[in-house]
């Protein structure tokens, strides 16, 4: 099963310790074949909304930027519980903040 783990923006500023711990975590998941992709996301983005045949395109940043995604990891694990455990480990490394996990279908 594949899961998309999304990190929301936080006020935490990374330091050398965080970079080292995150690097080790990413290396562990990569060697285990669990990590499929990871990356940070620009804070602005573009919003597309549609009503009927009309599509509106709006450039960010948006007022609710704290609700946006700041980064992601795509993992392949055997269960939802495994994805939650990986997210717990991630949260312990990065500290206060929020992440979401969603199963990827297909």
Automatic annotation (TrEMBL):
Alphabetized InterPro entries for the sequence: Dimeric_a/b-barrel, YCII
Protein name, as recorded: YciI family protein
YCII-related domain residues: 1-90
Superkingdom to which the source organism belongs: Bacteria
Annotated source species: Paractinoplanes globisporus
Bilayer-spanning residue ranges: none
Pfam families xrefs: YCII (PF03795)
UniProt family annotation: Belongs to the YciI family.
